[in-house]
Amino acid sequence: MSNSSSPLLEVKNLKKYFKTPKGMLHAVDDVSFTIDRGRTLGVVGESGCGKSTTGRAILRIVEPTEGEILFDGEDIRSLGKDQMRRMRTRMQIIFQDPFSSLNPRKTVSETIAEPLKLNGIITDKGKRMERVAEIMEIVGLAERLYNAYPHELDGGRRQRIGIARALALNPQFIVCDEPVSALDVSIQAQILNLMDELQEKMGLTYMFITHDLSVVHYFADDIAVMYLGRLIEKAPAKELFRNPVHPYTQALLSAIPVPSIHNQRKRILLKGEITSPVDPKPGCRFASRCPYASSRCHSEEPQLKEIAPGHFNACFLNE
Amino acid sequence: MAEKTIEIKDLVVEYRTRSGVVQALNGLSLSIEKGKTLGLVGETGAGKTTAGLAVLGLIPSPPGVIVSGEILLNGKDLRALTDKEMDQIRGDAVAMIFQDPMTSLNPVMTVGDQIAEAIKIHEGLNHGDALKKAEEMLEMVGIPRERAKEYPHQFSGGMKQRVVIAIALSCTPGLLIADEPTTALDVTIQAQVLEMMKGLKEKYEMSMLMITHDLGIVAEICDEVSVVYAGRVVEHGTLADVFDNTRHPYTEGLFNSLPNIENQAEKLKPIRGLMPDPTDLPLGCPFYPRCDHAMEICRTKKPPKVYRNETHFVECHLYNEQNIGDKEEKWR
Amino acid sequence: MGNTSSDLSKKYKKVSPVREVMSLLVRNKAAMAGLIFLILLVGVSLSADLLFDYESQVVEQNISERLQWPSAEHLFGTDEYGRDLLARVVHGSRLSLSVSFVSVLASLIIGGILGAVSGYYGGLLDEIIMRITDIFLAIPMTLLAMVIVAALGASTTNLIISLSLSAVPTFARIVRSSVLTVREVEYIEAAGAIGAKDGTIIFSHILPNCIGPIIVQTTLRVAAMISNTAGLSFLGLGVQAPAPEWGALLSAGRNYIRDYSYLTFIPGLAIMLTILALNLLGDGLRDALDPRLK
């Protein structure tokens, strides 16, 4: 165990490229950030911005192309297959789709017991059953669902199974990949509250990936905004919502439909759509849609700089 | 009173499946005046989409059965029409756009041809003229006319949804039913598409039924809103009625489940429990098992409509003519 | 919670998978009919020697009784050499069933493993395995069998080898394509994230979810094997006369189809009923194994 005041996760210059027939896809391009213990980093962005790939690359579910990932001070990219397997007991993931992330042929208890069994944490079957029942209670699954199959349950309960599976190993860190996007609002709130409680109770650190800004605003301590594989702005949640600096963040915030008829915010409508991150042109990736783009933005790539304590931004406009 | 484009009265629709009778709509009523937009809000399984399909006569049958009720389009009873007459109505007087733009387009036909096809069927134009009109439609939804020769896979999600909207609007229908039209899109693209729909709606004086789960979108684009729960409208009113004078506990619950952008510290108050099993609905108020204010009467008796004013009503035993105005207006 | 482990295991004891599948299968009448037919068939073929003596009743010719229509004495009639058709069909079931079952099983195991490995790992390995199976698919089965028999000599074992080889590519392809679909589903990623090794992922998560197409293909293959055996026997590459085998009986009977149609009808019926029973059982098994259909 290293010093507990150091950040739990430190990502440095993470890159993940995919070879595609059209060229090299820069899914994650030179992304760096840290997450402190017990905190939640929200990662937001639109489809194709590389947020999910970043989460998976950190767990090495997809192998990063370049960069350093320090988990509790340990460089996990240097770990061998077996060491990495042991490391995964400390870092877990919750998936977006509660339908496809559960094996339809395994019962609730089998799914939750599997990590305990595979990692040899509880070898005694009876003890394992006890532990499974305990975890089910923690995530709010009725004990009678012990032998139920996923298809018999609704989305909210299935997502609870996914959370239980991740919790079974007692991890310190959980990547939450859009965990509530597929759920109805009333169920979404139940799951968010559950995750909130669990964080408090178990001292969890979350990386919360989502496209929904209102959810991330509610849930995260810090927010990182991604656009086409790049991290373009990062700040404490309140600060980011109060004072968004990057033109993309501003547009993104203004585009959220607010459930109120007294909304005075002016909407910034962006031109065009997200281009693909295949062999990106030099310069800022947002330049083609940016209302403030200058010639410099088309030739030079802005770097992430700290503009206020804890507030990072990658745009020439505010330098 | 203004002319009504569509009026649904006490519609009851069931899906009779092997595992039981799904009561999708249980006396759903709604009406939209010419040029107005009604938001139909509810969660998965509330019957929103069934209501839209019923208007188009597209409820899959079997297992779907319209048990009773009336659907009046411009005063004409749609349930009395033959299949052939219904074909003429679809696309001409009513059009529908679906949630997923990826699957609503034919991948092996150019975008221009797909729009032209709809125009040919309904307006009897020849191919050349129809294609020309199709290009105009594309421009209207913000796509350069040159792209009419391209295939759907060459378009992004937001562009595809624009094409779908262009097809739906190509015959200038009086009523557009939009079933979660922006759910599959990213927020910035959603903002673009909503803005465009708002403009088109005004331009054509079209009535619109906006089916959505997102109260934010309702606030954005609708004039009135109906909250649907278990196949019935449990609260209905203008935006000001429903958003600022919320009465029904379910509507209240929906608002409290949403993270509030203005106030982060506020804890979410989810609605407890789950949607009732549509094959086995509660006897009384369908919401009572989840309701914090449930009383004995809620279990056994269906709540009647109680009006707060001419436009706003709820179906809830908490209220009667005397007390419904009591609650203070709140600022959300 | 006050649960002790013994409480829990009593309360939520899981029925053994075999018993669970059986209890579901019993509810499916068609599948049960298929299963009972197959059990009877296997029983008959195992006790063939007790029912009919091979030398005197199956092989020995008796020209005086040739081509007799079914009667009380010869329930299925006699063939052109006067041999009792019932005895030949019963003894033939041994060869037909064992050859087709064994070769299907062999090709299922080999093809299944190749397909699973190929689909799961992808890349160069996939490329190599798939190109080799392509080559085998391009060679006509008969030609392949002729080569093998020419090299190793005509015998039942070599027949099984050539039949198995001919079916391996199909199984490899089917398993591979199912694996490719299942591999992309998130629960496979989830299994990796909780520390499952490749073997666990393939055998505990991927293959059980590919079982549907595999079972269907297996039952269809058994049927194809019976007719392929017949074809090869006809060319003299398979079962050697006078040993009885259903396909051989069928092809022998075709010379007399106009006047003595029972000679083709009866072995044909045996083949058809076996295939039908297998298909019914296969479909029932596929459904019983799927928790979503409970």
UniProtKB/TrEMBL annotation, chain A:
Keywords: ATP-binding, Nucleotide-binding, Transport. It comes from the Bacteria. CDD domains: ABC_NikE_OppD_transporters (cd03257). The keyword Transport applies. The keyword Hydrolase does not apply. Residues 9-253 form the ABC transporter domain. GO terms for molecular function: ATP binding. SUPFAM superfamilies: P-loop containing nucleoside triphosphate hydrolases (SSF52540). This is ATP-binding cassette domain-containing protein. It comes from Enterocloster hominis. The lineage of its organism: Bacteria, Bacillati, Bacillota, Clostridia, Lachnospirales.
TrEMBL record, chain B:
It is a peripheral membrane protein. PROSITE patterns: ABC_TRANSPORTER_1, ABC_TRANSPORTER_2. It is found in: Cell membrane. Residues 6-255 form the ABC transporter domain. NCBIfam families: oligo_HPY. One of its GO terms (molecular function) is ATP binding. Signal peptide: none annotated. This is ABC transporter ATP-binding protein. The keyword Membrane applies. Keywords: ATP-binding, Cell inner membrane, Cell membrane, Membrane, Nucleotide-binding, Translocase, Transport. Belongs to the ABC transporter superfamily. The keyword Glycosyltransferase does not apply.
UniProtKB/TrEMBL annotation, chain C:
It comes from the Bacteria. Residues 93-282 form the ABC transmembrane type-1 domain. This is ABC transporter permease. The chain crosses the membrane at residues 101-123, 135-153, 260-281. PROSITE patterns: ABC_TM1. It comes from Enterocloster hominis. It is found in: Cell membrane. Belongs to the binding-protein-dependent transport system permease family. It is a multi-pass membrane protein. Its main location: membrane. InterPro entries: BP-dependent_transpt_permease, MetI-like, MetI-like_sf, OppC_N. It holds the Pfam family BPD_transp_1. Keywords: Cell membrane, Membrane, Transmembrane, Transmembrane helix, Transport.
